[in-house]
Amino acid sequence: MSISSSSSLSLNPPYPPHLQPSNPLKLSTIHLTSWRSSLYMPKSFNGGTVRRATTTVVSAHASPWDDKPYQVLPGGEISYYDERDVVSFLDPPKQLIPLDPSSYNPATYLWKKIDDIPEERRHRLLALLNPRLITRAWEVAGTRYDNSKLAKKSSCSLFTGEAGVKLLEFWHCRTNGGPLAVAWINYFKTALFRCIDGQTFGRAIDASVFGGLSRSFAPLYFTVREVNEVMSTEEPCDVAYEFGSGLLDLQEYPQGFPKPGKHPWPFNDAVVIYVRNVGPGVMVGQAWQEGEDLNQVPKKLCSEILMIKDYAHLDTSW
C-alpha cells in the first residue's frame, strides 16, 4: 500500500441514497434516553416521576444500514440510537441518577455498546464525543481491569496477533489542546504495522491538507510496547507508543512509508502515548511529555486522545 492512498483516507463512508445525511459527522444535540432504564433511575419532580417517551423507527428497506433503529433529524441527518447510547452512557441526562457502580462494571457495558455499533459507523464517535467525554471514556475504561475476562480483550488485532504475518492498520484520532507548534495533533491518523518478527511499530500522520509535506520531513515513527501502567500517574493501561528520538533501526516498513528520521520538538522530548482498550476498534490514549532531563516533571501533551480504527483498510498485508 502506498502512503499516498493512506493519507487520503476519508472519515465519511458512502451512504445509500435513501439514507444520505446532510453531514454524517455533524454533532446533534438530541439525547436519546429510552434504553437507559436498566442503568439509571428517574428522579422525581413535584412528587411525580419523570416520564420518557420512546420512538420506534421501522425501516421499509432491507439494507445493512437499516439493521439498527435511527431517527431522521429535521435537517435530514440520520441519528442512530447505537451511537447515541454511547454518548448518553458517558454523559447521562441530569434527570437520571446512575445506579451504584458496584452493581455492574461500566467498562463492560461500554464495550458492549460499542460492539453494537456496526464497524462502518464507529467513525461517527469522532464527532459525537467531545474532549470531556473522551476523558470520561478513559476513566470508564479504567474499570475494565477489575474484570479479568474483559482485561484480556484487545481493541486492536495487531496487539494479539502471532508473529510471522505482516499487518497494517490505520486509526483516526481526535484530541484537543495540543501545543500550537503541532496543532495538527487535534485531528490526526496513526498507522500501526507489525513486522514479520512480531514487533509492532507505528507512525503519527498529519491528516491536514499539508500533511504530506510536513510529514516528509518528520515521519514520527514510534515503537509499540506492552506496558501495565502510566509512568507519571501509575494508572493501569495496555500498551504504550514510545516516540523516542525517531531514529529507529527499522529493517522493513510498509511500501511508500518514508525513512525514519529524527523527531522535532516536542516529540524528541521522551513523548509516550499510553493506550487503553475501550471497545472493538476503539481506544483512548494519554500523551505525556516525560522529558529527557531526569529532573523534568512530566506533563500531558494534550487532552485524552480518541482512536477509531479505519475499517476501510482491514489488517492490510504489506
Question: How are the SSEs ordered, and which strands pair?
Answer:
Elements: H1 3-6, E1 40-42, E2 44-45, E3 48-49, E4 70-72, E5 78-80, H2 81-90, E6 96-98, H3 106-116, H4 125-128, H5 131-141, H6 148-151, E7 167-174, E8 187-194, E9 200-206, H7 211-217, E10 221-226, E11 239-242, E12 271-279, E13 282-289, E14 299-300, E15 305-309
Antiparallel strand pairs: 1-6, 2-3, 4-5, 7-8, 7-15, 8-9, 9-10, 10-11, 11-12, 12-13, 13-14, 13-15
Helix pairs in contact: 2-3
Largest sheet: 8 strands, antiparallel, barrel
> What gross morphology would you assign?
globular
How many β-strand stretches? 15
Report helical residue fraction: 10-25%
Order of helices and strands: HEEEEEHEHHHHEEEHEEEEEE
Strand order of the largest sheet: 7-8-9-10-11-12-13-15
What does the radius of gyration come to? 21 Å
Point out poorly predicted stretches: 1-62
Strand % is 15-25%
How many distinct domains? Answer: 2
Main structural class: alpha+beta
Number of helices: 7
Give the N-to-C terminal Cα separation. 7 Å
- On the 0-100 scale, what is the average pLDDT? 77
